[in-house]
Structure formats: C-alpha cells, structure tokens
Amino acid sequence: MSSTGPAPSGRRSPVSRTIALLRNSWRQLTSMRTALVLLFLLAVAAVPGSVLPQRTVSIEDVNEYFREHPELAPVLDRLGGFDVFGSVWFSAIYLLLFTSLVGCIVPRLRDHLRALRTPPPAAPKRLDRLPQHAVIPARDPDPRAIAAVLRRRGWRVVVRGDAVSAEKGYLKETGNLLFHLSLVVVLIGMAIGSWYGWHGNRIVVAGPDSAFCNTLLQYDESGLGPRVDSAKLPRFCLELTDFAATFTDGGQAQSYRATVLVDEAGGAPRHADFSVNSPLRLDGANVYLLGHGYAPVIRYTDRYGQTQTTVAPFLTRDANLTSEGVAAFPDANVDPRTGERDPSLQVAFEGLYLPTAPEEPPFIRSQHPEERAPAVLLIPYRGNLGLDAGIPGSVYQLDQRQVRSGKLTQIDTGKLLRPGETWTLDDGSTVEFVGTRPYVTLSVRHDPGQLIVLVGAGLLILGLTTMLLGRRRRVWFRTTPSDESTTSGSSFVEAGGLPRTDYPGFADEFRELVAVVQGGGNAADDRGETSDRDAAGVREGTP
Amino acid sequence: MAELSDQLLVVAILAYLVAMVCHAVEYAFGQRGAVSRAVARPERQLVGAAVGGDPAKPPKPVDEVPSGPARAPGRVARSVLAGRVAVALTGLGAVVHLGSLVTRGVAAERIPFGNMYEYLLALTFVGVAVWLGVLARRSALRHLGLYVTLVMVLLLGLAGTVIYTPVGPLQPALRSYWFVIHISAAVLSSGILLFGFVPAALYLLRSGWEQGRRGFPYDLARGLPDAGVLERFAFRIHAFAFPIWTFAIVGGAIWAEAAWGRYWGWDPKETWAFISWVVYAGYLHARATPSVRRSTATWIAVLGFLTMLMNLFGVNLFFDNSLHSYAEVD
Ligand code: HEM
After folding, report:
1. What is the torsional sign of CA A276, A277, A283, A287?
2. Across-strand partners of A438?
3. What CA–CA distance (Å, rounded) separates B93 from B126?
4. Which contiguous run of DSSP H or E holds residue A224?
5. Cβ–Cβ contacts within 10 Å for residue A110, how many?
6. How far is A22 from chain B, CA to nearest CA, in Å?
7. Of A209, A294, B154, B241, which shows the fewest CB atoms inside 10 Å?
8. At A477, which helix (H) or strand (E)?
C-alpha cells in the first residue's frame, strides 16, 4: 500500500484509506515546515496575553477591564482572552508543536545513533569534484600515517585500501537533538509544576496577634494544582516580628528586611530573615517578600464607652507609601444592657495614611516613604456596613452600594490625626490614632517542577551552542604510489573536502589539514596546490 | 558626574549624526568603485567570522583607492575620504558613548543597568562596538555604516528624550547578581540582534535589486555587497546572539524566581521576551529548512527585530501593569 500517488479508490478498503490518511497527516505534522508554522502561531497567540490583562498576572486589572468594557469583556472571556496561556487554543498550538517535535526527534535520534556507529563513507571517485581539493607531492605516502595524523586531531577515520575517509562534527547533530529534547524537558517540568505546585498570597501584619499558619483558608488569594491535596500542605506558622526598610533622602527604596518567627513541624520556633531576592526557603515551600506597607492602629470608643481596636493594613498608592484603607467597627454601639446590635449604628472610617504628611494642606500625598511625620486622615461613616449580606466585599474599601442606598452615611468631612491624637465625633464617641504597625505582602509557593525546568534550560543552552558552533565536514585522502602515478612518475596524495553545513572557514581548515598531512604531522609552511571552489559549502546554493 | 554623562550623550549623538551625513556623502557620490570591488571580492573574505565564527583571522586591510574604470576619480577619492571620516567619527562617537555610560555608572555608584534609559544606552553601545569590530575585519562592508548610524541616532535620540531617567540607586528588587547577569546578557544579545537587523534588512533590499526590482527602496541597495554575502552575514550574527539571548531569558527566570517566587509569570515583558525568542528560533529554524526560501527566513528575522523594539519601548510605554517597573518611564 502506498500513501503517495492516487490509487483506484474502489480497490481500497476504508481501513487502508484511513491508515493512509493518518500516515500522511503524521508526515505533514512532523515536517519542519509545519513546525515553523506552529512556532509562528505560538508567537502570534502569545500577543493577546500581553495586550489583555491576565487573571494569573493581576486579577484586579481583569476586573477593571470588565468594568470598563462591559460588552466586550464577557465575549473575550469566553474566548479565553484573560487566561491566554491556559486557553484551549494556546494549549492546542503548543501540544501540536511538541507532538511534531517528538515525532521529528525520535527518528532523527535513531538515525544519529546509527550514524555514530557507521564509519565515514568511502572516498568518491573524483576528489577534484569536491568543494575543496588539493594534490600534494609525497614520497611513499602511507594511508595509515595520514589516518594517525587525522585521528590525533579528533577526526573519525577509516582506512580503506589506499584511501582515508574522515569525518568530524557529529557534535552538531548531537547538540541539535539535545536542544530539541531539552525543550520537551522544560515543558514536562512546567507541567509538573502546574499539576503538583501550589501558592498562596497574603498580608501579614507585625505582631503575635497577626501570625498565620499555612492552611488554604488563611490566604487572601491562592491557587492549587489539580493534583494537590489541600489537607497535605506542609505545616508551618509565621509571625512577622520586625520589618526594616531603608530609603534614600529622595525616597528611593534601598533595602528591605523582614524578620519572622518560624514554627515548622518538628522543630523549635526560630527567627529567620528574608528579603526581596533572598526568599525564606522552608521545607516544602518558599516564602517571598512581595511588598510592604503600613497598618494604622485605630481605637474607637463608642457611645456606650466600649473600646475596640483594629489594625487595618492600608494599600499603598504611590512610591512614597501614601496608603488607603478602611478601619471598620461592625461591633460598635452594641447596647451593653441588652447585648443587642443595632445594624444602623455600625461605624467605619475611610482612611488615608501619610507616613510623611506635608506641613500644609492638602493632605493627600505623602512626601517620603519613611514615617517622618505620620498622620492619618479619617472620614467617619455610620450605618449598615453591609457585611452580613453574604457578598464578599473588599476589606480596603467601604461597600459603595450601602453608601449609595443611604444605609451608610458619611457623618463628617474628616480630620487629620497625628499618633496619639483623639477626635470626638458628633455622638460623643471618640476615635484615636494609636500608631502603625508594618505589614508585608507574602507569597508562599511550592513548585516541584522548578528544578526540572532549570536542568532543561541548562541542557537547552548547551545543546544550542553545540548546534550553532558545530560543523559537520568530511575529508578524504587518496595515496597514489609512484609506480601507479600517471602524471609524472612521482608519488602524490590527493585530498578532497566537503563541508556538510554552512561553514565559511572550511577552506582554511582544509588548507591547514593538507599542510599538516604534507609535513607528516607537523604544520608545515609550504602548502600544496589547493583549489578553493565554493568555500561556503554545498548547502549554500542561491536561494 | 550625572550632567557630564548627559552632555557626553549629546556629543555622542552628534558624532553619530555627522558620521551618518558623511556616510551619506560617500554613498551619494562614490559610486561603483568601492561597490564593484565589494561584489568582486571572494565571499569567503567577506563573510568570515568577525562574529562567532573561526577565531583570529588577521584583518585583511582592503585597499580603498578605487581601481578600474571609475568615471570621476577625484570625486570618488573625495567620497572615500568622507567614508573614512564617517568611520572615524563613529569610533569617536563610540568612545564618547562609553564615556557617557561610565560616568553614569560613577554618578550612580553602581553598574549602569538600573533602568530603561541606561539599558538602552548600554545595548546601543554593544551594537556600535560590534559594528566597529566587524568593520575592522571587513572594511568593504563600510557602506552599511549609513544604516548603522541612522539606527544609532534614532535609538539614542529616543533614549535621551522619551525615556530619560535621572540617576538613582538600584531598587532592592534589582540588587541581585542574577539581575546583573541577566541584564548583561540581555544588553549584549539585544545589542547584537539589533545590529543584525541591518544586514538582514539590507539583504532583502539587495536581493530585490538583484532580481531586477528598481525604484524606491530597492535603489538604495545598488551599492551594497552581494545578497548572498549579506544574508550569510546576517545569519552569523543572529546565530551568535541567539544563545546569549536564551541565556539572558534563563537568567531572568532564575532572578524572577528569587524576587517574585515564580520563574515565569507571563508578565508583559516576559511575554514579549518569549515572543522574540520564538520568532528568532523560527528564523534559525526556517533557515535550516530546505524548502523555505532565504528571503522568507530573513523576513522572520526582521519580524524578530520588531518584536525586540516592542519589548524595548512598547512594553514600557503601552502596558503599565508590568512587574518590570524598574523600566518605568516617569
Ligand atoms: C519547539 C519548537 C522548536 C524550536 C524552538 C526549534 C528551534 C530550532 C533551532 C533554533 C534550530 C537551529 C537551526 C540551525 O542549526 O541553525 C533548529 C534546527 C532544527 N530543527 Fe527545530 N525547533 C523546534 C521544533 C522542531 C520540530 C517540531 C522539528 C521537526 C519537525 C524540528 C526539526 C529541526 C531540524 C531537522 C533542525 C536541524 C536542521 C539542520 O540540520 O540544520 N524542530 N530548530
């Protein structure tokens, strides 16, 4: 059965036709042309991943995109536009590419292994037809001596009668195969990482009351690979005991250092330092410092005289750490006699924290990231905070629906408080700005495929350089003793060379080789008469 | 020191600019003489391996005095002089350029790779250094100088105006030796890849011209070396730079793991690095594919150049959500 050439269709069974079709498709898929098209598609498919916001990069940007383009966003979402690199079409492209790759590599690997065991081919009849050719006069030329010279220079040599065949540069193909195989290794490592890896992000405020332990519920945001059992996450607890940041006078950050108390299963609690670029490496997880900020401590005393304190991490808005957030007191104004909570008397403050407040209003922007003149601008709200509605809201913003519906009302334009200052509100309740505590944004991660990817990448570079620097070439030497010589009755050696890959320097190498052979192993200055036909090689025809 | 660096940059741009004009003068007035020699020269001498190929071949000085039937010998000689002045000015520009980079580093007390402006300054320097290195060995390629200096003036002009950043210390996230390795490799490889665009683009023009196309822009290719020579030259440059570019990406991934906890996160900068990598891999692949024409392959290299530009300028200007905010322009 032949897959090429049309066969009378009546004579072929559907099965054999299907087989022929499959075989043809496979041949198509594993052609270098198809690989090229798929590579190109891969590059094109990655572009929307940089133009559109991606869930894996920044969920906030995606949400904002939905708000700004309410019509377009759901359509894009269905097409996988916000998760390009996990989308069906992106996966389809790279899976096809890698199928093609494997289908292409395996036969080549077999061929290469065979080539490594096959001696260089016999000398062609007419060496003068080769791109490089030379004739050297020699007295009693000995093929075995020539072979020895070549072998010493790393050529693979075989002597057949009066002719020597030699080949060099197998490493090029080895490098090529290594490169393509390591691409597969990298992909496997990435797949393992996404199946068996997990991560969680959260904010940790300094102090023992804000310590956290590694369970999924403790994270603000988390992602588990499909093969990860959330009950089997490694056990450890972290408490931020200190955070130090240094800045230049101009406000540029110079260094960060977080100190934590680590309590790992099977060990006594210990202190550890880490910072940007040097994560805390624990057993089964790494802890990375992604960001930091200030958490103002606000004390509120309600109309019944009950005092509550919150430590509210504020989100930083600029490089000088101007921060915004909310200090909420959902349990304010609970009547101590009845124990009843009045949902319309909950209290919250919108806050703007300035680590270095300007001397004059407007108090909207910090002047420096260090706490040189700290002050917080508080805007009080009273009413129903909407926390019981069951809709998860942001802890950094008041629920605007409650404000719009009038259930939550602003009761003052706000006041700037320095640490220790107290402000009495219209109903006699007081609010005090106690001070701040630093917080850090942590990412806790485990990626078991990381090492595989690293090894794959190392092999990839190794393969790539060997492939691009290597040159496959062949040379032949044929000795003609004096009695057989037709030209002048004296003996001579004829040499021919064939670069098998693009190799402009081959002519020089050949000339040198001929000189060495002529000098009997020592580079000699007087060279044989050489002809330099097409130095650039056989594969170099005009396009 | 910081002002000195800025002033040196202006001087360097001016030097490149005047060099460009001199190249243009040579180009416009010095016809056939130099050109036909470049074409007649055996390919081997032209393509050799200033970049990446066989080591240490002694430079072969080329006799630049026109021989053969030049129509106006005096004019040609003067234009050759213009070409030499252009090369000298480019060399001068490169020295001043380096000076600008060094004073910048001294002013900031660190390696001057800390922001987009310095990054651009460094990689354009690599580009011009590679060009001068090539020129020392293959002076017949001097005609390409017009395009090299043009690209230099444009890139440095953009660097000095659009993305200029005052001197400042390195952000904590950048204080890592992997960062230095990553950026050095990126500077080196993108400088070489950007330079590789010149022969690639000129090859496309020249091969069009050799196939009988006339008019703009093919006429520009009249005085250029053979298409085959340019094509092989472009390939060598890309083949040399590609592994370094790969290494730069890997180094970046190692650094990203330490800084952000993931070696790869599809941040816009990373995405475009990936796109460039895939496109350049596609170019090398296409060139090794027998059924793909050389001109098609070279178009892919040109596309690679565009993706590099996108990564250098586009990502910083269009997408503000990149984690690589050190590159931010404010
Ligand atoms: C994952 C995608 C791939 C990438 C990034 C890639 C990249 C490359 C590169 C950079 C080269 C170097 C060319 C040179 O020596 O100058 C190359 C060569 C080669 N590739 Fe791929 N490749 C990929 C997939 C494939 C596939 C699917 C096939 C098979 C269909 C294939 C077959 C080849 C062959 C045969 C060569 C060597 C050509 C020669 O002998 O010079 N590659 N590849």
Report:
1. positive
2. A294
3. 13
4. strand A221-224
5. 10
6. 23
7. A209
8. strand A473-480
What is the per-residue pLDDT for A221?
83
Query: A283-316: per-residue pLDDT in tens?
Result: 889 999 988 999 999 999 988 888 999 999 999 9
Q: Distance between alpha carbon A432 and the CA centroid of its chain, in Å?
A: 47
Report the share of chain A in percent with pLDDT over 70.
91
Residue A58 touches partner B, C-beta closer than 8 Å: yes
Average pLDDT (A511-534) is 59
Whole-model pTM: value is 0.81
Q: Is B247 on the interface with A (CB under 8 A)?
A: yes
> Quick one: pLDDT at residue B84?
86
CB B163 within 8 A of CB B315: no
Report the nearest-CA residue for atom 17 of ligand 1: B285
Grade residue A541 by pLDDT with cuts at 50, 70 and 90: very low
Confidence at A259, pLDDT banded by 50, 70, 90:
very high
Q: Does A379 touch chain B (CB under 8 A)?
A: no
Select the residue of B235, B262, B272 nearest A50 (Cβ to Cβ).
B272
Cβ distance A274 to A244 under 8 Å?
no
pLDDT of residue A516: 86
Does pLDDT of A5 surpass 50? no
Min distance A495 CA to chain B CA atoms (Å): 20
CA angle at B7 for the pair B4 and B13, rounded to the nearest 5°: 140
Q: Which two tokens stand for residue B45?
A: 């001498």
Across the interface, whether the CB atoms of B168 and A250 are under 8 A apart is answered yes
Q: How far apart are CA A273 and CA A279, in angstroms?
A: 9
- Residue B71 confidence (pLDDT) above 80: no
Record the tokens describing residue A484, joined without a space: 């057989």
CB-facing half-sphere around the CA of A199: CA atoms within 13 A: 17
Residue nearest to atom 16 of ligand 1 (CA): B284
Nearest to A215 by CA among A205, A202, A196: A202
Question: What pLDDT digit, counting tens, does each position of A327-384 carry?
Answer: 999 888 888 888 777 778 889 999 999 999 998 888 889 999 999 999 999 999 998 8
Residues 6+ away with beta carbon under 8 Å from B149: B16, B17, B19, B20, B23, B86, B90
Q: How many CB atoms within 10 Å of residue A265?
A: 11
Question: B51 and B128 in contact (C-beta within 8 Å)?
Answer: no
Name the DSSP class of A334: B
Question: pLDDT digits over A12-40, tens only?
Answer: 788 889 999 899 888 888 888 889 999 99
**Among A228, A238, A219, which Cα is nearest to A193's?**
A228
Count the helices and strands in chain B (H runs, E runs).
11, 0
Partners of A292 in beta bridges: A440
ipTM of this complex: 0.82
Q: Report the run of H or E that residue A200 belongs to, with start and end.
A: strand A198-205
Q: Mean per-residue pLDDT for B126-134?
A: 90
What are the phi and psi torsion angles at B232 (to 5°)?
-65, -35
| CB–CB contact B42 A535 (8 Å) | yes
What span, in angstroms and rounded, lies between the C-alpha atoms of A63 and A61?
5
Phi/psi of residue A308, each to 5°?
-130, 150
What pLDDT sits at residue A486?
53
